[in-house]
Amino acid sequence: MWPPVGAESGPVVPAGVLIVTGASRGIGAACARVAAQAGYRVVVNYHRSRDAALNVVAAITKAGGQAVAMGADVSQQAEVTRLFAETDRVFGPVTALINNAGIGGAILPVEQHTETTLNELFFTNTYACILCAGAAVRRMSPRFGGTGGVIVNISSAAARLGGLPGMAVYAASKGAIDSFTLGLAHEVGKEGIRVLGIRPGMIATDILEAIGGRDLMERVAPSIPLGRVGQPQEIAQAALWLLSPAASYLHGTTIDVSGGR
What we know:
Strand order of the largest sheet: 3-2-1-4-5-6-7
Helix content: 40-55%
Largest sheet: 7 strands, parallel
CATH topology: Rossmann fold
CATH superfamily: NAD(P)-binding Rossmann-like Domain
Low-confidence stretches: 7-13
Distance between the termini: 38 Å
Shape: globular
Structural class: alpha/beta
Strand content: 15-25%
Order of helices and strands: EHEHEHEHEHHEHHE
Number of helices: 8
């Protein structure tokens, strides 16, 4: 996984240093591309999908942006430490973080879940977010020599709706993110760190393939007030706005980007 691959320079004036976790595809990849267009130097984090991450980096650099792919399992403390230290070395301390890494996990009724399936979901969806946020605070907070920053946590409409059948535990892992977003905002707001969340609704990404893919989207779309599922780019644009000075008085807030669902 190490060292990072694909670091390039371009003509874009940097807006800061951004890590996007789970950025090799879907919402994370869209966030990385949109942020690079806005001038961020972007770390495209991936766990297993190195080639997909390199494709994201290639698209960014072709468009004149700056990006690097860094492999790390962000559910593990040691890997998070390495990811942020390598970002320090390549681009400098992180000024923005999008906690996007997540999985759908096992689709099971609650009585069939085990310690193994629970660990998989909560380590990836919840622990990773908290570990990365902690590493970011150690760079953003004036207590550690930082000058502030923004953290955006990607939750899910499932946190509010309870999830689709067999996904109550997934919903719980995302509900924890909503609580964490608010609690962390209370902790670090006076240190110049804004903390925000996004609850995506049904978005056309790989995570839906395990639970029905296109057939599921076609069944659910009529129940969405806008009449369609969302696209990763639509979540990315919301995330970029939250990172920007245009959202400077938003803090501790999780917004729904769900077509009204």
